[in-house]
Design a protein that fits this description.
By secondary structure, the chain is an alpha/beta fold. It contains eleven helices and 21 strands. A hairpin with a 4-residue loop joins β13 and β14. α5 packs across α6 and α7 packs parallel to α11. The N and C termini lie far apart (about 65 Å). The chain binds flavin-adenine dinucleotide.
Length: about 400
């Protein structure tokens, strides 16, 4: 994007000078002049009664969809560490790129991220566009979105994938708006339609009761987000070679409308459901908040985390950060133990790809048994303490 001032129309009325939140416009020789620090927010364009100011949007409509090539993954990093979901997106992106016979690229923003960029190459990226800058150390939605949008407009990938994480969910809609394209959130399946090379984006719809496949017919790039652990991670290849393309600087006025004063780690990070190998989940069958202590004890013995159904969360027994399912986290642990969980479809979509599922429920007809590898019909208040005792005996405690 850029800004244009029509000197013929400008009357030097100074309304743009007053409207600019960054104080970067001044009147020079009878016309408005925009200095460094403009972030193209558009306040001056709105304020100008003479239509002398125009923010020029470069959008896909300037070119046909055919001009777009390549599959891009937006790499996500925290404290310099690339998030697992980025490697999962590279795994899925590689399959799409092979079907399209196009390159798989990643875009990575941060500070001192060269080794992280190399790692993305080992996980399948052919090229990594790397934007290194001290100001990019922490995620900043305004700056990140503008920087990635500019890159996308320059290189025109046909597919752009992001993680459906807190960062991805804030970045993806901003990008889609800037790029004037569509976005399908929380996809559980991605594929290429052979006849027109369109991206088929599948996700649950109508409360998880049907799977909808969505196509972004005539806008590019085709944008999709995918939750962590939904796709399989790419295979790491130690000696894999690729290209790192340094991208200079960040757009002028990178401070934008948002200033990050401090980064405070969320206490819920401790829960880390998405990364846990073992999850012990409680549902309404637990009857009250204090009974989650039983599950905490079992989870601790198994070095795992405690999950919950929305039923338990809505009852106020445990925090939302523990919720597994359509409106909570998607998890894929090696072992998932569901205690007093009925197995509603909205819960199942968040955990059914776990490697081994154990269900404990006193109702033999409970739907959770349909996805369980091992089902125990009985009272969880008898069965869980028994399991805890057995594990303790095994561990000699
Ligand atoms: P219940 O359905 O009440 O089941 C309790 C189970 O405990 C029963 O099967 C019962 O037999 C068993 N039980 C009772 N006592 C014992 C005992 N002593 N021992 C053993 N078993 C016992 N739900 C989610 O979990 N995650 C989501 O993200 C989610 N998102 C949703 C989004 C939408 C749009 C909607 C409409 C719903 C969503 N839900 C979600 C809610 C979902 O539909 C169910 O209502 C919820 O999962 C039920 O929680 P539950 O299994 O704990 O409770």
């Amino acid at each position: 994007m850029s800004i244009s001032i029509d000197q013929e129309k400008c009357t030097a009325c100074e309304s743009c000078v007053e409207a600019c939140p960054f104080g970067v416009i001044e009147i020079v020789d009878g016309t408005a002049v925009v200095g460094d620090g403009c972030n193209l927010c558009g306040a001056c364009e709105e304020a100008c009664a003479f239509e002398a100011i125009t923010i020029l949007h470069k959008t896909r409509t300037e070119r046909g969809t055919e001009a777009y090539r390549g599959v891009w993954v937006v790499g996500e990093q925290r404290d310099g560490q690339v998030a697992g979901v980025s490697f999962e997106l590279l795994g899925e992106g590689r399959k799409l790129a092979e079907k399209l016979n196009e390159d798989l690229c990643a875009v990575l923003l941060g500070n001192d991220m060269e080794s992280a960029a190399q790692e993305m190459i080992r996980y399948g990226a052919d090229r990594v566009y790397l934007m290194n800058h001290a100001d990019l150390l922490h995620y900043h939605e305004d700056t990140y979105a503008r920087s990635i949008a500019d890159l996308v407009l320059e290189h025109r990938p046909s597919v752009l994938l992001l993680g459906a994480t807190a960062i991805g969910r804030s970045l993806a809609p901003r990008l889609a708006t800037m790029l004037e394209t569509g976005l399908t959130a929380d996809c559980t399946g991605l594929d290429i339609r052979a006849e027109d090379r369109a991206l088929l984006q599948t996700r649950p719809a109508f409360g998880g009761n049907i799977m909808a496949t969505i196509v972004c017919a005539d806008r590019r790039p085709q944008m999709a987000t995918v939750r962590p652990k939904v796709m399989k991670r790419a295979t790491r290849e130690e000696g894999r070679r690729g290209e790192i393309v340094p991208v200079d600087g960040i757009p002028a006025g990178h401070g934008g409308l948002i200033r990050v004063l401090q980064v405070v780690k969320d206490l819920d990070d401790r829960i880390n459901l998405s990364e846990a190998d073992v999850i012990v989940t409680g549902g309404r069958g637990l009857r009250e908040a204090k009974n989650f202590d039983l599950l905490r004890e079992l989870a601790e013995l198994l070095n795992g985390a405690v999950g919950a159904t929305r039923g338990a969360v809505d009852s106020g027994w445990i925090g939302y950060a523990h919720q597994v399912g359509q409106t909570g986290r998607t998890v894929c642990p090696k072992l998932y133990i569901a205690c007093g969980v009925s197995g509603a479809v909205q819960h199942l979509v968040g955990m059914q790809s776990s490697d081994v599922i154990v269900a404990i429920n006193k109702d033999p007809e409970a739907p959770i048994f349909r996805v369980a590898d091992y089902g125990i019909v009985g009272d969880l208040f008898e069965i869980v303490p028994e399991i805890i005792d057995q594990i303790k005996r095994e561990l000699g405690q």
